[in-house]
Amino acid sequence: MAYMPKEKCTQYLDDSKMTKIYDLSMPWGVDTPLWPFPGARTDLQFPRGQYLGRFHKRTMTYTGTLHAGTHMDAPNHVLHEEEVDRERNGYTLAEIPLCRAIGTGIIVDMRYLKDEFEAKWNAAEGDPAKMDPSIWHIITPEEVEAACAKDGLEIRENDWVIINTGFHHYWRQNNDKYYNYYPGEGPELAHYLTDVKHIKGISGTWGATDAPLWHDPLAEQMPWLDKAYKAASGGTPASELFPDYEPCHRIYMQHGVCTVENAGGDIDEVTGKRMIIAAFPFRCEMADGGFVRLVAWEEGSF
Q1: How many CB atoms lie within 10 A of CB 47?
Q2: Is residue 286 part of a domain?
Q3: Residues facing 162 on adjacent strands
């Protein structure tokens, strides 16, 4: 194969003349933090099948979970088939209606939650025994609406809603904080956004669609977090206030709402704005979730 010096290639494409696309996805690779952290999970593996110098092409294979980095969950991830209107909403990742994966939406500014968390963390010196259980913040409908009002936004029917908690700045920097303490959702907010607002997509700068404590039984699912919560609560188990496993996942998916976890990337550049949002899942018939490139661009820019 002949070597091709780049100096002999004339470049014709000019990105400055194209629509600005904001990438709201997180980079990922062999050092990608995985849910639950620090659970007993195998690191993502990328063995090389073919080498450029020998085979004239480079071919990588991938071994690992489909729920890594910025990804969409499918209904079959958490629901039995009889719990889903498969014809209407799909069941596997390949069956999710593509019209749900793109549309208008808002990026809600709730980055103050990271500042509040840091203040509580520092006051407790990172010791759960010195923390108040409120350090695990559950986002309410009232808080979302207040954040929208601050920037003159409203949640419209068939919107995507992306919540920026600021916690994406912990990605690969402090994975314990990112996965075990992010401000997250409980069923109250999920019911509000589905039954009242009728959204079609939800995402956020969080490790999962449900808040960390909504993973009952916590002692089995995330024993390190169960220990930390009991230390903060004086021995009260999380199950008394959070007696279910991922209720938001199931609420959204029964309603046909797309759920994307681990938003981030350029999100700070578009926070507080109304944009066009897209996150197309790949067409794998066996997938219960999979990687997406969560992106946004200004309305009318094409």
Answers
A1: 9
A2: yes
A3: 107, 203
pLDDT, tens only, 146-159: 999 999 999 999 99
Tens digits of residue pLDDT in 251-287: 999 999 999 999 999 999 999 999 999 999 999 999 9
pLDDT of 38 higher than 90: no
Rounded to two decimals, the pTM is 0.96
Which residues have C-beta within 8 Å of that of residue 210, sequence separation ≥ 6? 184, 185, 186, 246, 247, 248, 249
Give the strand pairing for 201-204 and 22-23. unpaired
Mean pLDDT within 37-43: 78
Within a 10 A sphere around the Cβ of 279, how many other Cβ atoms? 26
| Secondary structure (3-state) at 140 | coil
* Mean of pLDDT over the chain: 96
Confidence band (pLDDT; 50, 70, 90) for 31?
Answer: confident
The dihedral over CA atoms of 20, 199, 289, 215, expressed in degrees to the nearest 10, equals: 120
CA distances from 171 to 3, 34, 100, 223, 228 (A): 39, 11, 27, 21, 21
Give buried/exposed letters for 76-109 (b at 16+ CB in 10 A, else e). bbbbeeeebeeeebbbbbebbeeebbbbbbbbbb
Main-chain dihedrals φ then ψ at residue 122, nearest 5 degrees:
-70, -35
Structure token pair of residue 279: 């996150």
Q: Over the stretch 167-196, which tens digit does the pLDDT of each residue have?
A: 999 999 999 999 999 999 999 999 999 999
- By CB atoms closer than 10 A (0-12, 13-18, 19+), residue 19 is exposed
Whichever domain contains 86, its CATH number is 3.50.30.50
Q: Which domain holds residue 129?
A: 6-28+66-297
Q: What single DSSP character describes residue 179?
A: H
What's the total number of domains in the chain? 1
Tell me the residue type at 178: Y
Q: Is residue 13 part of a domain?
A: yes
